[in-house]
Amino acid sequence: MKIDRMTIESKTVLAPLAGISDSAFRRLARSFGAGLVFTEMVSVEGLLRRNRPSLQLLNFTEEERPIGAQLFGSRPESAGMAVKVAEEFKPDFIDFNAGCPVRKVVRKEGGAALLKDLKLLEEILRRMIEATELPVTLKLRSGWDEDSVVVVEASQMAESLGCRAVTIHPRTQRQGFSGNADWELIAKVKEAVRIPVIGNGDVKTPQDAKRMLDETGCDAVMIGRAALGNPWIFSKTNHYLNTGELLPEPTIEERMEVFLKHVRFMREEIGEDRAIKRMRSHIGWYIKGLLYANRLRQRIIRIDRYDELEQVLQEYVNPVSFREQIRNSNVFGPVTEGATAFGVDLSTDERGAGTILQRRPETYQGAWSKHEREVEVKAFMSPRYQEMLNRWLEYRYLILEHSPRIYERIQMLLQTPMTDETITRIFSEIETALSQTPEDGCRVSAALHIWGKLKGK
Fold it and tell me: Which residue numbers are catalytic?
């Protein structure tokens, strides 16, 4: 894809995300293959006042190129003058946002509110294009509401004025981020204009990206929320588009390494103190779905130094060390003095290691057996093992209701050494059980079993 004379290397684009897609995040996205990035949305009025936070949003490194400075506002004269301020930072192009649905933006007639007044939007774009030699692009939603879908008309108008590309998020302002994006509107825009069209909305996987490209004919796909804690989405999508092959999910070690790299980028940009505070808003995305994620998050939000963060994450990704620490707790035997897990002293802290394991069996919160708790710890050794275990723990009583015989078989398999063959067999047994119709007698047995577990607590 080419925007004016600028060649974009891949078909994946990072969306501008207010409060998130700072320079560090953009550098990370580019390193994983995002072909194009944008600054966070910057107010034209803030730029004209030389407001320091507004100016800081336009800072970027050479690693981030090609990069667009995204502006928003509702006054044509301000937009034209603000472009001159943005030019001082030497972005590759200027992008104007007429799609933001956020209330504080539309309340001032900016963002998606401009879709109610295309004449005003036209004048804003005209002033911006006249004020700069840089390419100007436009971000749009489909319209204000379902009764005023104007995205095709607005795109044609933008092209006639000299805009070099349009990005389409086919939801209305009223929809916000709810419902489904209407990709058919992207296809209609692509048919109506000759400039590049970037599709946006509901791209969560490489398969989604390919489907959007195939169904709409758009030139590239913009990825936003799916990139949070997941910069691999760009490399995986690019690889899938080029080869048809899906790359495996990152390991726990890879997740933690990239998270630390992200924090180092922040540290270079804003210093260690501010970087450590800001990373707290990102850690939840990186560890989502991992075992003991809540306990790890609680530990990290109390961290003040980068070296301490490294130490905690090294402990987390070391399953052998972690298992030994757990085995030293009263769940399995005596606690050795000074034994720790996630920074908690197991010899003194009654919460034990994590939200699942407790030091004293009599205070253990849950109806799982000792063996199941041991399996939880072993799950660190294999992402596939972890996936299987999570599925078993989620559906085990439903499996008992559907087929007590399969329930017993899985219990026996869990007590054997874990191999790929065993894990595959357990997955198969789970699916077989859930496909069977439960009988009334089995339902009663399952209910009594659960009651016995809870009563025994």
Answer: 100
